[in-house]
Amino acid sequence: MSKRRSTTPNTQTRLAGKASRSTRLRKLGKVAVWVIPGIVVPLLIYQLTSAEPDIRYVCDSGSALEPLDKKYDPATGTTQLYFRIFETFKNNSTKSGRIDKVEFTPLEINVRPTIEVTHIDKEELGWGEQRRVEVRFNITLTREMSDAMALGNKQMAVTMKAYDNTGKSLKLCNSDTPYSTTFNLSAQR
Questions:
Q1: What H or E segment, with its residue span, contains residue 143?
Q2: What's the rounded Cα separation, in Å, for the pair 21 and 28?
Q3: Domain 55-186, what architecture?
Q4: pLDDT for 19-71, tens place per residue?
Q5: What is the pTM of this model?
Q6: Under a CB-based contact definition with an 8 Å cutoff, are residues 182 and 159 in contact?
Q7: Could you tell me the residue ranges of all domains in the chain?
């Protein structure tokens, strides 16, 4: 009596030259072992070595400029104006960053006050984080500048620009336009 070989569906599939499901999964696993690290490792190296923060001003968030104090020195005739401004920024990069430097520039040629930044909120902005950043500054006006502004009831226009911890100028919302904001300050005594 000869033994008869029984054929099951899996045996028939293998006999027809097709790999079983477990064999296909093993082959897929071997491919995944090489492909996934081949993608993940370069991205990780890029992130750790050359990624930079992408901090942007949040449009339509509204700037909040607050006068804090005003001091007039009759002996020298100078007026010191103290302000703080709140601006909202968002980091669109996976690399964290912070606002590191702020510059103020008067827009009028005949009024060149001394502007000094006294405080910048330098807390790190993480990936996708949005936060209001506080900047404090003071402006020193000479007697002539203060008198001209007070007598003419004029205001002084000042532009503020901000830079991140890599030295890059911050951008507006969803464009590559450099961020700057302009506001008017009065110097009445």
A1: helix 143-151
A2: 10
A3: Sandwich (2.60)
A4: 677 777 777 777 777 777 788 788 777 767 777 888 999 887 777 788 899 99
A5: 0.69
A6: yes
A7: 10-49, 55-186
